Structures are given as structure tokens and as C-alpha cells.
Amino acid sequence: MSKNFLVNIIIWMLLQILIEVNSQMVPFKPIGYFHHTATLIDNKLYILGGRLENETSAKDFFYLDVSVPFNTQELSWQDLSNINMVPPHDSATSVKGGANNNTLFLYGGHTTDQNMALVYTFDSQSIIWDIPKITGINMTKKRGLKGIIDYNGKFYLWSGEYDVNGTYVINDMLILDTLNLNCKKGSLVNAPIPRSEYSATLLPDNKIIYIGGANESCFFGTTLNIEIGVALTLSEIYIYDTANDSWNTKITSGKIPSNRAGFSAILGLDGQRVIIYGGYFSNPGYLDTTLYVLDLTNFNWYVPKISGKIPKPRVFHEANLIGKYMVISFGYGYDRTVESDILLLDISNNEEYVWTTSFDPSVPKNIIPSPSPTSSPIPSRSLPPSSQLSDNSSNNSNINIVGAIVGSLLSGIIFLIIGCFFLYKWNKNKQNKKIIYGNDNNYNNYRQEEKEIPTERDYEQAINNEQNIIQINDNEPTNDYHGQEIILTPDESMIIPANDHEQTYKNESTTNHEPIIPESFNNNYNGERFSLQAFKDEMLQAVKQENQNLRNEILQVVKENYNK
Ligand SMILES: *[C@@H]1O[C@H](CO)[C@@H](O)[C@H](O)[C@H]1NC(C)=O
Ligand SMILES: *[C@@H]1O[C@H](CO)[C@@H](O)[C@H](O)[C@H]1NC(C)=O
Ligand SMILES: *[C@@H]1O[C@H](CO)[C@@H](O)[C@H](O)[C@H]1NC(C)=O
Ligand SMILES: *[C@@H]1O[C@H](CO)[C@@H](O)[C@H](O)[C@H]1NC(C)=O
Ligand SMILES: *[C@@H]1O[C@H](CO)[C@@H](O)[C@H](O)[C@H]1NC(C)=O
Ligand SMILES: *[C@@H]1O[C@H](CO)[C@@H](O)[C@H](O)[C@H]1NC(C)=O
Ligand SMILES: *[C@@H]1O[C@H](CO)[C@@H](O)[C@H](O)[C@H]1NC(C)=O
Measured from the CA of 55, which atom of ligand 1 is nearest? Predict the structure, then answer.
């Protein structure tokens, strides 16, 4: 083989890598969804699925980093669609739960894919989707409901539309324990009539408040007014006590919002009020405002004082409490060329809520009220859930970060050199056909690696994998997998997971579903040859990770400076 030929190959590969990496670094552009899910896990807001304007379901999966300041006019979405194993769907519901309390649990939804499972999990640390095996009762398949996870990791799935014939609501309460993956049924004694598109909010005392909804599927036009009146009243609300599995109805007073469904609700930062936004309505008289607050101390509805640019009403959106904001994502009813997919309502001041476009991840110190002397029935939460947003690792981690950046740059260069070296060796050996996949374990390792498109993987990992793939004639391939990795997270400056990889590998072999094999792999892995394309992809993968790490680290530094 001529030297020139080899040099050409290397230059070509580097060029390809550069082009592909650059095209990857362009932030993901969502196409607009409603009936999607939005799940907050460790400062990332994950958006999954949803319905598209053309009445098909989306298969997109992406996230927004909320550990750093951002403006809603310039959202930097990160795409994870290529690792998504959930079929296109909409109207599902999701929570953060699991044994490590960092797993996305997706339940139900509407799909045309007959093979869609009832429950999926996404481990945000290992970045792996799975179909968990759930013991206990057979779960009904529902859609258009709002699942709530309590403080003990139990996922409550009340009512919703039965997703067989699609048009009738079903009354049942599924309780899925996300820690031991067991499902049972809850009580329906004194439960309200079944419904879909209601709102549900977990209160500080581990009770769930259910508000509004529709008694069947509704048709609505662009005005968001229901043309057939089936939205349910907000003059009463329903409280489910997770402690003793009992229901209770409360009559509300004050400026009761019109009947509505498809709206969103969050708990106020003081834990004493529920804020609702949007939805579709039966009474156009209430369209002057779409924001209402229910005072939980007396079940009185009121319209809060609002400033900022009032957005158009939305329906079938999602709302998450992130820091001091009610964060509205996507939905139906707004012009995407005019308004951002993300709306921010600053709720840190109960006297006046502010629609804003800039997100500040720091949580003000004064939002936790001192317990009121007139002992309210709702105890204040000790901490807002996102108080971890303001970490103070900045004191000791700046040096680490700078070191990490320099280190990654250096290791990136070294890696390229090593890559070129191995490529050279491989080319030399090619004619002898020494390099083939030796056994299934290696094949699985490779697949495992391809499944994860990690965003916070350390560079060492890439090198380890590279070695695994090169050392294919090793008889104990899994032993090479003990290389520990260092992951930078926004919360801790550095954590070293204990053989995280081996665990996921074991999990993989014990679950009985077929792991997904990304297309790129299928294309590249034709039979047993370790092709040039696969090698190039592997390098590309490592460089992408490298870029992502750098980006995260820089963001980290920005964030810390910001918090000072
Ligand atoms: C619906 O829209 C999406 C996104 O624009 C597109 O990918 C898909 O092909 C469309 N489906 C149909 C049936 O038009
Ligand atoms: C669940 O469904 C399967 C098949 O439909 C049935 O064989 C099994 O008995 C059911 N289990 C329970 C607990 O109802
Ligand atoms: C999981 O984290 C949330 C805060 O994000 C907390 O309220 C909840 O109690 C935790 N769940 C478990 C089972 O520890
Ligand atoms: C679905 O609808 C068909 C007829 O429309 C009915 O025969 C069938 O029982 C329904 N299935 C369920 C599970 O309700
Ligand atoms: C929903 O409510 C409307 C109005 O009360 C009623 O006409 C309709 O039959 C109800 N639908 C169901 C499925 O109960
Ligand atoms: C459940 O507990 C609440 C108090 O938290 C009590 O008011 C209610 O009566 C109890 N219900 C049942 C069915 O035990
Ligand atoms: C942050 O730093 C302050 C003082 O430097 C300390 O009291 C507090 O415990 C720290 N918080 C965390 C979460 O480490």
C-alpha cells in the first residue's frame, strides 16, 4: 500500500469528522409539538414525543440545559433522538423516579405502533432507554392523563382515556412503585367522575390535587373554545391522599375559572397555591386571562397580578417548576414564528408574577417563607425542588475545570494521533484479515457503546472503548471494561461511578427485550468485518463527545462565574 494512499485516507477521514462534528454542533431545531412530555432531571428538561401539526406523532427526544442562564429567543436544544427507543407517540405522561431518583418513567400514550410498550425508562446517568418488567397487576393502557410521582417514588396514574377505542375515559388508579417496579390499584371510593386532560399537582403533604379535565375527547377550534361542551368544572377540586389511599372533594370559591381541560398546573414556591395556565374552555368570557391561582389554604381562586408580555394561550402544553419559574413548553395555539416554544413565568413574588424571556438559574434565598403563625393546613416545603440549581462547588472547582478543558484538548489531540496510529496498523494488517470481531461479547460491548450518545462522558471512556475494540482477540474482553470514568456534572464537581458500565452491560443481558441497534451500526457492521466506516464512526463519536464535554465544561465555568 502506498504511503500517499494512506495519507489521503487519513486526511479524508479527518475532513469527514470535522464536517460531521460541525453539523452536529448546530443546536437541534424542534418542529413544534403538543401532547408531548417534559421531564426535569438533574437540570435538564427532557422533551419527548408529542403530536405534530399534521396529526402524526413525533419521535423526537431532546433536552434543554437549565443549569445555565438562557434567553427563550435563543434556545440551545440538545438532540438525543438517535438513542430514543420509544416509538413515535403522543399523550403519554412522564415523571422522574426510580431507585436513583434520576430515571425518566414514561407511561401510556397514543401510537400507531403496535409494539409500543406500556412503560419505558430512561436512565439519565447511563443514557439508556429500557422497557422495565413490572410485577403486580396488569396495567391498563391509557392516554391523556397526568401522572404524578410522590415523595416516595410512587407513580400515580388516575383515569385518562382508555387507549383501545380511544374515545372513552376510564376510572382506575394505577400505582406504580418506581423503586421496586411493582404496580397495584388504588381506591376509587369517593373519586370524581373519570376524565382526561385534567391537571394534577403533588402537594407538600404528599396529597395530589386534581383539577378540571374533560369527560370525553373534545373537538376544539383555533379559538380554543370547545364546540361541544364537555370540559369539567373547576368549582370543585379533588384531593387524593397517598398516605391512606383516600379521595376527598373540596368546593372552591372566588373567581372560579371556566370549565377547562388541556391546561397545566404547578405548585407555587411557597407550597400554598396552585397556579394554572392555558387550556381549552367552554366559556369565552374567561379568555381575557388564562392564568389563575388556587389558594390552598381556603380553596379560593383568584387572578394574580401579572406583568411582562402576556403570551397567547396554549393548550396541550407542559409546565414544569424550574427554579423560580413556571416553565411552559410547546403546546398548541401559538405562532411559533412569533413566540418561543418556551414561556417563563417568574413566580418568585406572589404579589406579582412576571412573564419573562430570560432564565436565571439561581434561586433567590427569600422564597422560602417562614411558617405562618396562623398555622395553615399546608405545611411549607422545606426547599424548592430545584434548590440544587444553585450549587456552590465554584470555590474549589474552577481549577479543576480549567484543568479539564486543557486536559480534554490535549487528550483530543493525543487521541487523534493514536487513532491514526491504529488506523495505520489496521491498514497494515488488513490483508491478513486479523481484525474481525472475535466473539459476541465484543459485539455486545460495541453495541452497548453505540446505544449511548453520552453528553457528559469523559474522554478516557472513549479511549477505553477504543482499546476494547482494538483488542478484539482478547479472550476476556469484559475485563477490560473496568476502566473507571470521570463524569462532570453541574452538581458535583467530579463523581466517579463504580463500574457503571459493567452494570448496564449486565442489565442488558438480563432484560429479555431486544436492545435497539442504531441504524448507523447496522449499516456499518455488515456481518463480521470491522469496517473502515465503523472505525471512522467510532472516532467521530469520540470527537463529538469531546466537543460536548468541552461545551459543558465551558458552560459550567460560565455558570459558576454567573452565580458569584
Ligand atoms: C408530518 O410532519 C413531519 C415533520 O414535519 C414529517 O416528518 C412527516 O413526514 C409528516 N407526516 C405526514 C404524514 O405528512
Ligand atoms: C394479566 O394478563 C395476562 C394475559 O392477558 C393474564 O394471563 C394474567 O392472568 C393477567 N394477570 C393478572 C394479575 O390479572
Ligand atoms: C426524588 O427527588 C425529589 C426532588 O426532585 C424528591 O422530592 C423526592 O422525595 C425524591 N424521591 C425519593 C424516592 O427519594
Ligand atoms: C371497542 O369498540 C368495539 C366496537 O366499537 C367494541 O366491540 C369493543 O368491545 C371495544 N373494546 C373495548 C376494550 O372496549
Ligand atoms: C359529557 O358531558 C356532556 C355534557 O354533560 C354529556 O352530554 C356527555 O354525554 C358526557 N359524556 C360522557 C362520556 O359521559
Ligand atoms: C385519610 O387521612 C386523612 C388525614 O390525612 C383523614 O382526614 C381521612 O379521613 C383518612 N381517610 C381514610 C379513608 O382513612
Ligand atoms: C455552600 O457554601 C456555604 C458557605 O460557604 C455552606 O454553608 C453551605 O453548606 C454550602 N452548600 C452546599 C450545598 O454545599
Answer: 1
What is the whole-number distance in angstroms between the Cα of residue 245 and the centre of ligand 6? 8
The answer to whether position 27 is within a domain reads: no
Is there a contact between 429 and 473 (Cβ–Cβ < 8 Å)? no
pLDDT at 476 > cutoff 90:
no
556 — pLDDT class (breaks 50, 70, 90):
low
Q: Give the binding-site residues of ligand 5, using a 6 Å CB cut-off.
A: 215-216, 229-230
pLDDT tens profile 289-324: 679 999 999 999 999 999 999 998 899 999 999 999
DSSP output for 83-143: G--SPSBBS-EEEEETTTT-EEEEE--B-S-TT--SEEEEETTTTEEE----EESPPPPEE
Which atom of ligand 5 is found nearest the CA of 214? 1
* Nearest CA, atom 4, ligand 5: 230
Residue 108 grid cell: 401510556
What pTM was computed for the model?
0.68
Cα separation, 433 vs 441, in Å, equals 20
Residue-wise pLDDT tens digits, 404-424:
455 556 666 666 666 666 666
- pLDDT value, residue 296: 98
Q: Which domain holds residue 188?
A: 138-398
Whole-angstrom distance, CA of residue 436 vs CA of residue 269? 58
| C-alpha span between 368 and 410 (Å, rounded) | 45
Ligand nearest to the CA of 163: 4
> Please, are residues 356 and 329 in contact by the beta-carbon 8 Å criterion?
no
Last residue in a domain, options 383, 398, 413: 398
CATH of the domain at 225: 2.120.10.80
Number of domains comprising the chain? 2
